Amino acid sequence: MKQEPPPLPPQHHRKRLMVFALKKFTKPTSYFILLLLTYYLGYLSAPSSTSKKPTSTSRIPIRATATSSAAPVADHNSFSIQCVDPVNSEKVRQTVLDRVFHGISPWQNFPPAHVSTLLRQNRIKGWGSTGAVFDNLIRRVRPKTIIEVGTFLGASALHMAKLTRKLGLETQILCIDDFRGWPGFLDKFREMKMVNGDVMLMYQFMQNVVYANATESVLFLPFSTASALDKLCEWGVFAELIEVDAGHDFHSAWTDINKAYKILRPGGVIFGHDYFTSADNKGVRRAVNMFARLNHLRVQLDGQHWVIESN
Ligand SMILES: C[S@@+](CC[C@H](N)C(=O)[O-])C[C@H]1O[C@@H](n2cnc3c(N)ncnc32)[C@H](O)[C@@H]1O
């Protein structure tokens, strides 16, 4: 074991030692002692190689801890929230009204005075929002509840409301959207008003629903898709048909599909747009395919839409 060097004498003490040596001995002896002392003190004050520590700017990579390196990769595929038993379809609207809006319909007294002048009577824009897939699936599934994950101005939601009405179905459509759009979306919607940084997306969506006379069949949850889907699962709000059309990067699509599938009723169908878009290296398609593979499900295509039927 390496021996600890004796403690270094304080600075003033070191000086006195040297003066004493010079006074006490003859010149050659003094010089010799002085040389020895200098060497000795220099050795003591030199930085020890064992005391070297990385500085705060050190770029030494931090090694993974035993716990994190041992975590199974499959953790990424685990969405552990447990849903309660589904409430009756007839109770879906009231459940959302109670849980989200304290029992007061958001359509009451809409639009408020401070907003009405900022809205267009009707402003719809969607992407593939009236594709054949909607008609095909609604005819086949005849859903009592539809959940739409990603609504924007309501183009696809209102198209579905029209289709269900035409078939004589009393379908509730729940639209999940934080109504923030995406950074820069106003470049293409220059007429949309902004008040202190707040875009009028939710109000314009609501105005579109009012214009389409669909307030009895449409409700919305103005939150992030992940948190709203978890809450629906917690409240037992399930659907026979779920459309996923929010974030198109892999991780958003992956999370939305996994969370949405938990609240799909047995025999129901989950589907979504943009299977072929290039966003995030075809993120939607990668998420859909991986989900189907892990859950032993089959992906079908209908135009630009992917479709998965539940087991
Ligand atoms: C492509 S648009 C939906 C279009 C709509 N389905 C249609 O066809 O008319 C995507 C929407 O998803 C919403 N969105 C994206 N990521 C979201 C998230 N993490 N939480 C809530 N909404 C989100 C955006 O605000 C935007 O309105």
Present the secondary structure layout.
Elements: H1 11-24, H2 27-45, H3 66-70, H4 92-101, H5 113-116, H6 132-141, E1 145-149, H7 155-166, E2 172-176, E3 194-195, E4 198-199, H8 201-211, E5 218-221, H9 225-235, E6 239-244, H10 250-262, E7 264-272, H11 279-294, E8 299-302, E9 305-309
Parallel strand pairs: 1-2, 1-6, 2-5, 6-7
Antiparallel strand pairs: 3-4, 7-9, 8-9
The structure holds S-adenosylmethionine.
Explain how this protein is built:
The structure is a single chain. The chain has 311 residues and is α/β, with parallel strands linked by helices. The protein folds into two domains: 11-43, no CATH class; 83-309, 3-Layer(aba) Sandwich (Rossmann fold), CATH 3.40.50.150. The strands form two sheets. It has a seven-stranded mixed sheet, with helices on both faces. A two-stranded antiparallel sheet has the order 3-4. α6 packs across α7 (155-166) and α10 runs parallel beside α11. It is globular and about 75 Å long. The protein starts with 10 loop residues before the first helix and ends with a strand. It contains eleven helices and nine strands. β8 (299-302) and β9 form a beta hairpin. The protein has helices at 11-24, 27-45, 66-70, 92-101, 113-116, 132-141, 155-166, 201-211, 225-235, 250-262, 279-294, and strands at residues 145-149, 172-176, 194-195, 198-199, 218-221, 239-244, 264-272, 299-302, 305-309. It binds S-adenosylmethionine (SAM). S-adenosylmethionine (SAM) binds at residues 126-127, 129, 150-152, 155-156, 177-181, 224-225, 245-247, 252. S-adenosylmethionine is lined by residues 126-127, 129, 150-152, 155-156, 177-181, 224-225, 245-247, 252. This is S-adenosyl-L-methionine-dependent methyltransferase. It comes from Fraxinus pennsylvanica. Pfam families: Methyltransf_24 (PF13578).
